[in-house]
Amino acid sequence: MKTPERAPTTYASAYDLPTFVEARQQLLAMRALSLLKPSIRPKVVELEAEFNRLASLIDRFYDTLGGRNWLFPSDLNATHVSEVCELGSIDEQEAALIALYQDRVALSFMVARLGRHPRMRQRMPLLEEALKDYQAGRYMGMIHVLISVMDGFVNDFDTNPRRGLHARDGRDMTAWDSVVSHHKGLARVHETVFRKGFYRLSTDEVVDLYRHGIVHGMLTNYANLVVATKAWNYLGAVADWATAREKAAQEPESEPTLGEMFHRLADLGAQKRAINNWQRRAVSAEAPSFRAEPVYDTCTNFLLLWQQRNFGDMCNLVAWIGPSELRTKPGEVKELYRPYTLNAFALTTIRYEAPSVALVDVDLTVNGAAQHSTLRWLYQDSNGDVRVEPQPGEWRLMPWGPTTFLDEPPPS
Fold it and tell me: pTM of the predicted model, to two decimals?
């Protein structure tokens, strides 16, 4: 049974989130310990700086972009958001935030990460089609699709009582210990924008996700980049709301020990160093080092298994997001790849476009037709957490469905 402290609520500041309150208490204890053990003082200073940087970033985001009804879901990279918030004007910040979503690799990862919720994973074909339309600039239909996905997901997620997203008021969209529960966050936008009623036809352009007016045909000029991007932004926040509701219903975890805190800090430091040392690069098939790239072997192995129609081993080379029980099953791979026969393939270029992401350009012959495709690979550890080389990990395909990189639909 949930304690009152784990009940849904809104927070005046990121510093008031239970996670941040607990971290501040841990930092106070570590600071006191550093008086007796000066060698740990640099680590404590580093951790305090990281803590304050993240908390102040969340508040700064909502103080500026929150005024235009943007939310801060967990799928946004905090470092990139920090760069956005450093820009001078609100127009520049909004344009830069939209650009984060227009990054094909980043948005594909955000969409795949939604699969951590089984009820969202069941709607992944809809999300993948919406992703294609968004990236092609076809906004009208994909906005409707994302609204329907959110409505259906919330209806299935919380069945006591069973109600879609549109039927819930702002109080329903609060959560315990979630960044989207900032007082300028999801609950406010849901009540003042998403559920706002429109009862007269308007042809004026809108730049907010007015679900009522869009779905009921009262707003006709909504199919633009800003509204389409806000649909993805809102979907990410709804997924975080669901994650927070699940977390609140679980038994509280024991507080981390000081040793565990230092271990987490060391892991964070290693990840930061790997990211700082990473460089964008491309390797062509003519380069002597081409076949020595680790992702070359992984991609080649995947395509060979596809040729052999070995769906069971193919599933070991695709990425997943969330708990281990969400790992892809052989039957899922078989269902999607069975209509496609890979006759031949050749890898042409490997491009490292972002930390943890490699794009492999390939020439494929599928069902007798030649085409050029790009396979996106994500670097993960054995727990499914994203890593950066040279940290321990493996390259896995994401998104992995064949329709995400093939031009032609399967034969009927």
Answer: 0.70
